[in-house]
Amino acid sequence: MTLCIFHADLDAFFVSVEQLHDPSLKGKPVIVGGDPGTRGVVSAASYEARSYGVHSAMPLVQARRLCPRAIFVPVHFERYVKASQQFMGLLETMATIVEPLGLDEAFLDVSELVPDFDAARTHAAKLKQRVHDDLGLTASVGIATCKIVAKVASDYDKPDGLVLVRPGEEAFFLSELAVGKLPGVGSKTGETLRQLGVSTIGQLAVLPQDVAHRRLGRYGEQLRRYAQGLDNSRVEPRGEPRTMSRETTFQADTRDISFLQGTLRSMCEHLSRDLRSHKKQATTVTLKLRYEDFQTVTRQSTLKEGSNAGSVLYDEATRLLGQLLAGNDRRVRLVGVRASRLSVPQRQLDMFAPDSAMVQNLERAIARIRKRFGEGAIRSGRDR
Ligand SMILES: [Mg+2]
Predict the structure, then answer these.
(1) What is the mean pLDDT of residues 352-357?
(2) Which of 104, 159, 200, 367 could cysteine-pair with 11, CB 3.0–4.6 Å?
(3) Structural fold of domain 5-12+78-170
(4) Which residues sit opposite 248 in a β-bridge?
């Protein structure tokens, strides 16, 4: 059966939410990330700011140099989470399965909702219209028979794009695009591929398999399949996961400890949200690093008691980071955190107790935790 998959991605998400909040920011070079006098990095930049070469993860100081008239705005994480929840809620009404990828993007399986790809296009247009009407934001949507092609397609005509890749045209669609447009190809992999004479996705698709394997390992073989428009992975609903994880591949390999810690802090906060949204806590924390030479290492530790607090996950992850970095001086291209041995927090069980005073106490406690967590999320991140 031919699948019909959407990748829906909000355009310049953080910036757009800030512009909703303060319409005077519309049409201007806006950089979300905080005070440009600090050591922080750019979380997001408007398209106007991007035209000066500003991009996310760039030091704020450098962004100001490139675009002196940019307007710098602090990160308001709670605003993005709220908008994200509305977005995901809307998507749930328009697909059989929704798989969120982050705050502002998701895969949708609409195979059972549309009879053909023309109907899919109409459905996607309706989705975009509703995002606009209900949220005041624009989304780009890619439509294809598999996830990887849908994702490339949503990026193809940003912002406000709607790109349909018909069944059978996947490899053709991808072939002329720069190889860096393929998800998973960062600057380092891109450089390795360029050395092999590969600059387009089409060239990667016809790279001999043994060459791909020799230079990039199994990962290279997978990228080659993606380049051919082949991706069997299904859109996975938010179910009852046994582990939860977050990982980030950097634009450039790094040995900057405070940057790595800042990234870890942000990932642990996301992970904490993931855990709490599933009403889970974790007992085991695993840190994963991939070095510049593609060697991947993991180290795990067991918490004294289960937790889903971002600070607890972060403390453990950063301790493991210290251990893994101690023995070498290689730069890091990917960092990931996994929470496993998941269980239902004891306090969650108390919620079902008939004692209403206990329920009220619990609710107050949850509100306090949420409040504290929200503040923590705003304060921290990569600004430090
Ligand atoms: Mg986006």
Answers:
(1) 41
(2) 159
(3) Alpha-Beta Plaits (3.30.70)
(4) 335
